[in-house]
Design a protein that fits this description.
- Helices cover about 5% and strands about 45% of the residues.
- The chain is mainly beta and about 130 residues long.
- Strand 4 and strand 5 form a beta hairpin.
- The longest helix has 8 residues.
- The N and C termini lie far apart (about 35 Å).
């Protein structure tokens, strides 16, 4: 089970930290990713992290502003979002897959097909 938290309303230029807490069965190796979906738009892959080598991937739209990290002791993955823009407004979801692959755009594609998703957390950035 994946549970997201940390969303909210913030002004442009502000910061939020999202959390994705995993419980229940866990994978020996895994990738966890963040996706977002704004009203009327397709779901977009934002970032992912690989447990096998610690690699990370970021979409161009968030590179340099967002940072993904993990705390294995807490079974939690974080997405630190800085310099937020109104176009970052969306529901943010995390997804997990038991893949040993490094974090790449292709891994985001694997995650998008995963059966393990959280319920989402709303992020709203006002201008």
């Amino acid at each position: 089970q994946l549970v997201e938290s940390g969303g909210g309303l913030v002004q442009a230029g502000g910061s939020l930290r999202l959390s994705c807490a995993a419980s229940g069965s866990t994978f020996d190796d895994y990738a966890i990713g963040w996706f977002r979906q704004a009203p009327g738009k397709e779901r977009e892959g934002v970032s992912c992290i690989s447990s096998s080598d610690g690699s990370t991937y970021y979409a161009d739209s968030v590179k340099g502003r967002f940072t993904i990290s993990s705390d294995n002791a807490k079974n939690t993955v974080y997405l630190q979002m800085n310099s937020l823009k109104p176009e970052d407004t969306a529901i943010y979801y995390c997804a997990a897959d038991g893949t040993p692959a490094a974090a790449t755009a292709q891994t985001m594609g694997v995650l998008e097909e995963s059966d393990y998703w959280g319920q989402g957390t709303q992020v709203t950035v006002s201008s």
